[in-house]
Amino acid sequence: MRLIWWLATVVTVSLVSIFLSHHHATDPAHNLTLTVSAPLEDVLYDAVHPIDNIYEGIADRGDLVRENEELRAEIERLQAELASRENNDQRIAALEDALGVKLNRPDDKLLAANVVAQDPSGQKRLVAIDRGSGDGVEEGMVILSRSGSLVGTVATTYKDYAWIRLITDPDSAVNAQVEVNATQPGNNTSPLTAPSATPGAATPSVTPAPTSSETTSVRGVADGNLRQGLVLDLLPPDANIPKGTLVVTSGLGGNYPAGILIGSIKDLQQRPQAAFKKAVLEPATQLSSLETVLVLVSFKPARLEVP
Fold first, then answer.
1. Residue 277: which domain range?
2. Model's pTM, two decimal places?
3. Residue 179 pairs with which residues in a beta bridge?
């Protein structure tokens, strides 16, 4: 019974409210409610607004952090792509240079290798390459730069890699030669002074002796030196070699083919009363920044022995 009276009351109140609202009878009460509650709403808004700003700031900061992380990841990806492209360009250039060397040495078999390590002691001039005995590399084989100049020889081999002794290593010695122009007096000579002549007579002209020029080979040994890098020793004491003159392998001893470029004369050292002259050489290739080298696998060192 109570439930029926409760439902009847709710229905009656609802119908009355709908009727009053439809005829705008509740507008004064509604306006009074808004008038009373408006100041309270303003106070609550002012109190909550800073908190809302903090939340929005935190949300915005999170978005910025994510955007920065995405940008950093994109930059890293682009940098890696650029580095890979530059590395590929360098490899292509190295292969093109190797092809040029191959064209200049059509009878030789060359094996390209990458430099993967260097001796950290500072007392040796050694680098490691990613080719070894499994690739046909043997001790004593000659190593060329990507441009075809002399780098060194194979010191030790392993299955997958090998150590290279550079020409600047203290244990390296290369028989070398320099081509210089030697000037010799000609066979037909003329006197440098004229005979006495009678006064008023014409003075005969003095004609210098004709000369002939020929190229001669001056031989020495290119030794590795920790302080000076590369020194050409055992030069004849009367050798007069201009700076910039090219130095090549002589082929003597059988350890190197003849005619491989070693470097150029940087400075000729004058030593009075010395049995031999010395010259500081500038290697033809930058040995401190080697990346790709060529193994001359077709040349087998003779390893000559003194009888």
1. 171-184+211-293
2. 0.60
3. 217
